[in-house]
Structure formats: structure tokens, C-alpha cells
Amino acid sequence: MKECTNFEKHHKKEMRAVQDSMDVLNGKWKISIISSICFYTKRRFSDILGDIDGISNKMLSKELKELELNKLIRRTVIDTQPISVQYELTEHGMSLRTIINNLTDWGIKHRTEIMGNNNK
């Protein structure tokens, strides 16, 4: 049986960390939901729904619950008439801002690369 080198152990640990991250952020909608909240700081359910083309009420509700379970967002019920709910990133969730900003920058560059300078 082959013994793992320190490099291989470190690589496996890094790959496990990437997989853990992907498990939390998996699916079609989570990054978009986090982006909506990140770009605007606090968002209501209907605001997020309007930001993301194609997401249903049911799916948004499900994804928000999962993000809340993973301590990435905070849900606050506001005592208004009618009652409204606001979502914001937790301190832990705010650690994703750099990733969201990097994805934004990469997406702009990628769109320019694929479509040319006329479609920014």
C-alpha cells in the first residue's frame, strides 16, 4: 500500500474543503440569492424573487431556509402591516463577499471574451 506524502495529504484536505463549500453552495440558485443580498445588504423575499429570473416562490423559500441553516443569512421578521421579512448576510455569510466580487469580475471578463467588447 502506497503511503501518502505531505503534499498529497494537503491536497486531499484542500479538495475536501472545496467539496464542503460546493455542498453548501450547490444548486442553481444559492449563489444568485447570496449575490442579491450581498449587493443590496438587506432584501425582502419579493426583492430577491425579482432579482433572479426563473426562480419560483417555493424554490426561493427552500433555498433561503437552507442558507439560514448553514448560517449564511439571517431572517428578520419586521412587525409591519402586513408583516414583512428581511434577509441579510450573517457575519459568516459576509465572508463570501470576496468570492461574489471575484465571480462578478470574472463573469464580466468572460462575457467580453466570448461576446466581444460590444456586449458588456
Q: Sketch the topology as an H/E string, one letter per element.
A: HHEHHEEHH
Strand order of the largest sheet: 1-3-2
Q: Mean pLDDT, rounded to whole units?
A: 91
Relative strand content: 5-15%
Sheet having the most strands: 3 strands, antiparallel
CATH superfamily: Winged helix-like DNA-binding domain superfamily/Winged helix DNA-binding domain
Predict the CATH topology. Arc Repressor Mutant, subunit A
Residue share in helices? 55-70%
How many domains, in number, for the residues?
Answer: 1
Enumerate the spans where pLDDT stays under 50 for 5 or more consecutive residues.
none
Q: Total strand count, please?
A: 3
The global form is globular
Structural class: alpha+beta
Gap between N and C termini: 54 Å
Under the CATH scheme, which class? Mainly Alpha
Architecture, CATH level 2?
Orthogonal Bundle
Number of helices: 6
Task: Output the radius of gyration.
Answer: 18 Å
Task: Describe the protein in words.
It is a single chain. The termini are far apart. The radius of gyration is 18 Å and the shape is globular. It has 120 residues and is of the alpha+beta class. The protein has six helices and three strands, in the order ααβααββαα. The chain has a three-stranded antiparallel β-sheet. The protein has helices spanning 6-25, 30-40, 45-51, 57-69, 91-94, 97-115, and strands at residues 42-44, 73-78, 84-89. Strand 2 (73-78) and strand 3 form a beta hairpin. 62% of the residues lie in helices and 12% in strands. The model has no long low-confidence stretch (mean pLDDT 91). The protein has one domain: Orthogonal Bundle (Arc Repressor Mutant, subunit A), CATH 1.10.10.10.
